[in-house]
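Appendix B. Chain record.
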Amino acid sequence: MSSLNEMPETLQQTDLVLRRVGTNAEKMAWILLSSETNVEQVLALKQQAGLEGDEVERLLLWYAARQSLPQIPQLRVDESVRDLLDKDLRQLPGMKVSMAAGSYHFDRAAKMATLRRFPVGPMEWEMSGVPRSFFLKATFPDNLRFLAFVLFRMRGRKPCFFMHVAPAPRNRALSIPKEVLRAYYRMAKSMELQPEVLGLVAFAWFHDPSAVRDYPHLEVLNRPYVKEGGTVVLLEPAPLSSGVVAGNAQRGADYEAGKVQYRYGFAMWPRDAAIRWAEAHSELESKPLRQCDTVSTEW
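Structure tokens predicted for this chain:
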């Protein structure tokens, strides 16, 4: 495992070029990556330096990750999350995917490198809340149930952990029920350490009960919201870009042919219910699944 103490040679060259045009990447990394306009700023920096590819992005990630590592022990998250984050930060700059500014992988890496996104196994979370616009996307009477749940069970719109599916290969563990539950356990235990967090929320096609009916292995992803004190509200139809065609060739073919249509489900799990569930499932407190373990590629 890399210690991030020695900068790769390719990044050294990029660092030198940036310094020649008056940019100190070490000082700018955290500021740029934590900015909401980081894409425009990074692209402008690359243009100024006459650099192509994603070396500038990787250099910024290298510096930001190096600055974040000493902060991990003080984070209010479960110990297992700190371990996973430590490992991910060391690997971010060298990931074998494009890190071009504006891409999904760059956005994810920038948030993780600046301690705004946290890994829990096959899933991840970042701090967010219940979008106001979602109340208008639910139809009657679900919109009233939605509002009542936010007011009386969540006790507000934000802050909440917003769950995301992790990228490959880690998302393959979604096919293993115990790993999914372990991820929920880590989020619930981290939530317990942050009293201001109101709960866990998620927005995805696989929270539609029709999707669970057609693909029963999705049940475990919905268990906290359906059986452990949460709820799911259906919103608008999920387009192809929702990820519904990923991971299952037959589902993708059926969806593109119009044979099936799922809706986005907005799932909510209040902190009291999540913490109570975690207290009853201490058996889930164990080491994460190793990425080298064999798991199904479809979920």
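Further analysis of this model is presented in Appendix C.
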